[in-house]
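On clarity, I found the account of how folds are encoded harder to follow than it need be. For illustration, here is how one protein appears when written out as sequence plus C-alpha cells.
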Amino acid sequence: MNGVASEKLEAIRDGLARLRGDPAAAPEASIVVPVNAQTDLQLVLGVVGDIVVYGGPHTFEVLLLVNNFPAEKPPAELESYAKAGMEMRGIPNVWRRGEAVCFSARMAGIRAASSERVISFDADTRIPDSSSLLDWYMERFDDDAAAAYTSVGHYDARPLWSVRARLGAHHAARWFKREVLRIPTTRGSNYAVDRQALLPLYDGHALADDLNVGPALKAAGGHVVYSGARRLRVLTSGRKFHGGWLKLARYLRYRLGYNRRVLGTSKDPDESPGASYHRTPLR
C-alpha cells in the first residue's frame, strides 16, 4: 500500500470504530460497497472517509466486497483494511451469468452483511452530508420501506458542453421515468434496501442489475421512497465522460437500449430481453 493510502486509512480508523459502536452488538444497518480490485482499492477510501464522519445516533458496519483479482494473489488490502475496522470479503471472480458484474458483487456483499437493513454505495461515490443521508435512510427503514434512494450528481466532470448535455439528458430521462412513468430509478451508487424483501426476487431471477431493484420491489408490493433533497445527494465520478457530440449521440442510443433490455428482465435470464447484455462480464 502506498503512503497516501496508508495515511487515509489511519485517519479513518477511529471513525470506523465509532461508527460501529459495541462490536458485541449487531449493527443497526450494513453499508455495502463493491470494490473492483483492479481500480478501486484506494479510491474506495474516499467514500469510507465520508461515511465515518457520520455524527448521528445509529451504528453501522462497513463491508467491502472485493472482486476481480487472481485467486492465487489476493490483494493485501483485504487484511490491512480489516485491521482498520472494515468488514472485508474477497471473491476473485464474482460475476454470475445473466447479471451485470457490479450487481453480482453488490448482491454478494448484501448476502454477507450482518443486518437486514442494507445501504449500498459504489467505490467512486462521495457523500457530502453522510449524517443527514444515513439518518434519512434509517427513518425510511423505520417506516417499513422496501427500498429508498436519493438524487445522484457528479463530480470531476469535464467542463465541456457535450458533457453537460449528456448529464442533462441523463437527469431528464431519470426525472421522466420517476415522475411521469412512476418507475423507481434506483442506481448502484446510492440506495438502501430491506434484504428480506430483496433476496426472494434475486433468488427468483427477477433481477439482473441495480436498475431492476426499485421497479421489481414496487411490482412485488414493496414501498419504494425517493428524495431529491440537496442535503441527501450523493456524487458519483464523471471522470469517464470524455466529451464529444458523436459520443453523446452514441450514449443516448445506448441508454435507450439499455433501459429497454434491463427493465425487461424475466425470471429466466437466458430468455429475458437483457440476457445478451449480461452474458459477458462487461462492467
